[in-house]
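Researcher: Structure prediction, please.
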Amino acid sequence: MSEYDQFYQNFHNRGYLVVEDFISDDECKILKNSAKNVIELMEKSGKLDLKQLDPTKTLFSSAHHWDTDLSVLFGTAENTSFFWEKDTIDKNFELVDQNLTPFQACNRLGFGLHFNNKINEDLGYPMREIMFSEKSCQILENLKFQEPKIVESSFIFKNAGIGDALKAHRNAFYLYNEKKEKDLNSGDNILMMWLALDDADLDNF
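Model: Predicted structure follows.
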């Protein structure tokens, strides 16, 4: 069995695959800095002004998946949008802790970080470069994907001590796919790639 066949077999036997050192330390820093820069750009443009916006439309809750109306959610598909962490904003649309920064209160940025839009252009498309890189394409080729399409991309912050626990779920179930059967075990032709930008330890648990 060749190295590529073993790669493919391991993935389908386990349902997941760990690729060590897929991105470099420098690439990690670039991606993390770009997330901070996105939030700074949004702050400067007034997109995170709680006095002007209804933040309840962009709260993320693991219990109800999305506390948004569908028009807001669909509007994020090709843009870079900010989603607040649950319980960071009170009923008066103010941060529950005034020392809390938007970066700390952010659940995720998404879902079009790989698209050609103004924010991504200002940042130099760091996420797009990784997603369309030769090494990303090589993984998909090794897994025998044909003509793969990227449907979403996001930064998920998982800040320590904030938000609620994410309940068990299968991401493929929430993505529309014409080839997918209508059951929870479907989605064999949908793949999610996670990039861990920080190690998990007792300080950021």
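Model: Residues 25-45 form the longest helix (21 residues).
Researcher: Thanks, that helps.
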